[in-house]
Specification:
Layout: E1 21-23, H1 32-37, H2 39-49, E2 53-58, E3 61-66, H3 69-78, E4 83-85, H4 93-96, H5 105-116, H6 121-148, E5 152-153, H7 154-170, H8 179-197, H9 210-239, H10 249-255, H11 262-293, H12 295-309, H13 323-335, E6 342-346, E7 350-352, E8 355-357, E9 362-365, H14 367-370, H15 414-431, E10 432-436, E11 444-446, E12 450-452, E13 456-461
Parallel strand pairs: 1-2, 3-9
Antiparallel strand pairs: 2-3, 4-6, 5-13, 6-9, 7-8, 10-13, 11-12
Helix pairs in contact: 6-7, 6-15, 7-11, 8-9, 9-11, 11-13, 11-15, 12-13, 12-15
């Protein structure tokens, strides 16, 4: 069994004393210095040492960190209407505006209903060919690196792949030369947002500092990219005959604009791009890193792909046979969830078991810490895909494992992300062995998403059986 606890279903009683542990830190700044030195280690230690609920002081802000699965379930599902996006997400509004990632209430529901139509099973089956074509194009580019024995930086490589897949499947656009500019711009704005979230005394955005100017340039790059998509589609629509039916996500968003401005449409599109390629790219990069460290797992993944696929690309129907590959992917998401933490604010007073939560309380749900909590997981720091084997355990206990969030606001593109990842992993391992370049200190970089700090790998052609 992969989990230490037995059940979280049913009413929540007696899971936490009425008063949570309180960690205050230094005067004025609270725990901010310790947090900023190493956020991942800080939160992991807090979850390990201080139980299911902990009150943390960060300068003028207080955050209630919930580490118990039943408490997580309460916030995400049982009393979900009482918990909205917290003020910390305001740091992302210059990037995502009122897109689905930050929207609330009726606006969120409207956007969700529109986008859901693009992620139904029949649509995912249709997307499989485009996903495989994008992967094949990437593998073709890698042949040059193999011939020249030149390593690849897997983080931008995976960013390019997942952006290419997203644009082909959801926006009917082939990626040309924009990927490097989009990648660099996204990196800049994410790093800036993360610093501001944990720096309540940060400088205003309007000051003409070097960083603020660089962020504005990055935002212009993203705006130009997205508004370019919109204008090209409008030109195509004008030339399309009335009986032609397009119907990708971009068409759906534009058809359901319903009085929204182009700025609001831009917010919707950019939210989909960020959520749909940044997170999956990070997950795939971590997959290659972990497989390079665990050759037995790599051998099993490759053997499974060769047995199920026999050298060809995966089709939608093949995915059920890639069971061990899915276990590896799930275990990577446990250790390195791409969206590693998020927060909510209590709208009204609440009671979570014996714990009283006052209106206005900022509540943190930190997947990275919960996924590594010894009270919930055996050998939590170890890489063990077998803990997700559906034949030998009960691996998918909700709310102890929630890399895609959970409840009504669970990630809309979860099935999309899993599908493209299974296709990419099974294709790559049949063609190449990605060997970690020696001497690197690969660490997770805790921005809004969780990227490897750098990941140089040498692709080596796999000998045909």
């Amino acid at each position: 069994m992969s989990l230490v606890f037995d059940q979280i279903a049913g009413p929540l009683h007696g899971t936490q004393d009425a008063a949570p542990a309180k960690l205050k830190g230094l005067p004025l700044v609270g725990l901010l210095p310790e947090l900023r030195r190493d956020p991942l280690r800080f939160f992991t230690r807090v979850a390990r040492d201080h139980g299911g609920a902990v009150e943390l002081h960060f300068g003028p802000d207080r955050v209630l960190m919930l580490n118990d699965p039943a408490m997580v379930r309460h916030v995400l599902q049982d009393n979900r209407l009482n918990y909205e996006k917290s003020k910390f997400y305001d740091m992302m509004r210059p990037v995502l505006g009122e897109g689905i990632f930050l929207a609330e209430g009726d606006e969120w529901l409207s956007q969700r209903k529109t986008a859901t139509r693009s992620f139904q099973g029949c649509q995912l089956r249709r997307m499989t060919r485009d996903m495989q074509d994008a992967v094949d194009d990437m593998l073709g580019r890698w042949q040059v690196n193999v011939a020249q024995q030149k390593p690849l930086d897997m983080v931008p490589e995976m960013m390019r792949l997942t952006l290419d897949i997203l644009l082909r499947t959801l926006f009917s656009v082939r990626l040309e030369g924009e990927h490097e500019a989009v990648f660099s711009a996204m990196t800049r704005v994410l790093r800036d947002a993360e610093r501001r979230i944990w720096s309540p005394f940060g400088l205003p955005r309007w000051l003409p500092t070097a960083n603020n100017r660089a962020v504005r340039r990055a935002l212009r790059t993203l705006d130009d990219f997205v508004y370019g998509l919109i204008e090209r589609r409008r030109s195509e629509a004008a030339a399309r005959s009335d009986d032609e039916d397009a119907g990708d996500l971009l068409d759906l968003l534009m058809a359901n604009q319903n009085g929204r401005s182009d700025k609001q449409l831009r917010d919707q599109i950019l939210s989909m791009i960020l959520a749909g390629h940044e997170t999956t790219a990070n997950a795939l990069a971590w997959c290659w890193y972990m497989l390079s460290l665990h050759p037995e797992s790599l051998r099993r993944v490759r053997g499974e792909a060769q047995t199920v696929l026999g050298g060809r690309g995966a089709d939608f129907a093949d995915l059920a046979g890639l069971t061990y590959t899915r276990c590896v992917f799930d275990e990577v998401l446990r250790l390195y969830p791409p969206l590693w933490t998020f927060s909510r604010v209590a709208v009204a007073d609440d009671q979570i078991g014996d714990l009283k939560v006052e209106a206005g309380t900022n509540v943190m749900l930190n997947m990275f810490a919960v996924h590594r909590r010894p009270a919930l997981w055996e050998n939590p720091e170890g890489f063990d895909p077998s803990r997700f084997d559906p034949e030998t355990g009960d691996p998918r206990r909700r709310f102890a494992y929630f890399p895609f969030s959970d409840g009504p606001r669970t990630c809309l593109g979860e099935r999309f992300a899993v599908l493209e990842s299974m296709i990419a992993i099974s294709a790559v391992v049949q063609r190449f062995d990605l060997q970690l370049v020696p001497g690197q200190d690969v660490k997770p970089e805790p921005m809004i998403t969780l990227r490897p700090s750098g990941l140089m790998m040498q692709p080596v052609a796999v000998a045909k059986a």
